[in-house]
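Predict structure. Chain length: 100.
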Amino acid sequence: MLILELYVFVLAAFVGYMVITKVPPLLHTPLMSATNAISGISLVGSMVAAGSRHGSLATALGFIAVVCATTNIVGGFLITDRMLKMFRAKDSHAAPAKKG
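Prediction complete.
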């Protein structure tokens, strides 16, 4: 059973690497938004794992998963915001001029 799980893990890692490296730069922002949604789902799952009372190892691994998923979500939103700022007009942040 361990060999099958290891096979699935290696195959998923390879396919994930190949998919991510083939994405053109123009699609990174929509892809990052989809990745944030998936990370949100994994955050919920990791919170369930951390809150389950299946032993101290499961709780510790669940806590580590919560920290990693939260870091991934926050970093994804920061990167997405930074990339979207590149497409905004330079003067869109300026205050409107007062008349009078």
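Summary: The helical segments are 2-21, 28-51, 56-86.
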